[in-house]
């Protein structure tokens, strides 16, 4: 799929432009609601969203604080602070690697496992309540549309970055 550059062939007419702007507003509303819901879920078990993210990563058993910080565009100090908070809540345990004293192994404590089970149950309950009444064909259409829109946004962003890099290389 190729995103066309804005030219007269692909310019939106007035009605379509208004519809697109309304769709963008609804998408922003949906994004905001997802963020609010994520915060509610985290609070329901006494966590922040950031703590939840770290617990999810630790539960996968391949947690590396430095990589987590890099992926989240966060500082190592911020991640360390969250880990200390989780240690204080007795939700995670840390062990020094027997072979390499520089490495730390993180794992959920029994309390951490219980909390994650509760959090996941709360999330599934919300998913069932919200998405359960939507007919499967509409869910499939939404999934397809969301994937297409995401692909188009990624491609457009990449094109813009490439154009910027090309222009910067010319200067």
Structural descriptors:
about 170 residues; mainly alpha; Arc Repressor Mutant, subunit A; 2 domains; two-stranded antiparallel ribbon; 2 strands; about 70% helix; about 5% strand
Morphology: flat
CATH architecture of the largest domain: Orthogonal Bundle
Q: How would you spell out the order of helices and strands?
A: HHHHEEHH
Strand content: 5-15%
Binned, the helix content reads 55-70%
* Radius of gyration (Å): 22 Å
The level 1 CATH classification of the largest domain is Mainly Alpha
What class, by secondary structure content? Answer: mainly alpha
Number of helices: 6
CATH H-level homologous superfamily name of the largest domain: Winged helix-like DNA-binding domain superfamily/Winged helix DNA-binding domain
How many strands, which pairing sense, and closed or not: the largest β-sheet? 2 strands, antiparallel
**Straight-line N-to-C gap:** 31 Å
The poorly predicted ranges are: none
